[in-house]
């Protein structure tokens, strides 16, 4: 669990920092578009950047204490699973996404499956015998 938490901490931190400092570049790479107003860019910095930085730091803290590993893994499953759900709905509703949307969806599903597997394994090893 610790490795999954640390990897996600790093990814969320890097993603967040990227969107805080280079929102136009990353937005163009991820979505093939860029917000056209100062408010759009500011919101992108806050939403994509700030939330991701905060979550990355939280995961980093959780990775340091083994008693928080299950909670950290649950948080990853819920947050990344929520992203996958939203992306899936977007793909169905909006149609014609770029390749990055499919790549992100596959990565999100893989992370959720790994997290659920680790949680199940942890529950089995903690169950009284």
Classify the helix fraction into a percent range. over 70%
Number of strands: 0
- Residue runs with pLDDT of under 50 for 5 or more positions: none
Strand content: under 5%
Our measurement of the CA-to-CA distance between the termini, rounded to an integer number of angstroms, reads 22 Å
Largest sheet: none
Helix-strand pattern: HHHHH
What does the model show?
The chain has helices spanning 2-21, 23-31, 38-63, 69-94, 99-126. It is an all-alpha fold and 129 residues long. The protein has one domain. The chain is globular, with a radius of gyration of 16 Å. It starts with a helix and ends with a helix.
Keywords:
129 residues; mainly alpha
Give the topology, please.
Layout: H1 2-21, H2 23-31, H3 38-63, H4 69-94, H5 99-126
Summary?
By secondary structure, the chain is mostly helical. The chain has one domain (2-126). Helices cover 84% and strands 0% of the residues.
């Amino acid at each position: 669990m610790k490795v999954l938490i640390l990897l996600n901490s790093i990814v969320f931190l890097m993603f967040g920092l990227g969107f805080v400092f280079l929102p136009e570049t990353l937005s163009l790479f991820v979505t093939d578009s860029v917000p056209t107003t100062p408010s759009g860019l500011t919101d992108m910095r806050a939403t994509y950047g700030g939330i991701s930085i905060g979550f990355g730091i939280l995961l980093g803290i959780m990775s340091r204490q083994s008693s928080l590993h299950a909670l950290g893994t649950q948080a990853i499953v819920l947050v990344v699973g929520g992203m996958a759900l939203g992306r899936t709905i977007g793909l169905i509703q909006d149609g014609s996404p770029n390749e990055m949307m499919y790549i992100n969806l596959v990565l999100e599903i893989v992370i959720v499956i790994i997290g659920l597997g680790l949680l199940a394994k942890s529950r089995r090893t903690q169950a009284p015998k």
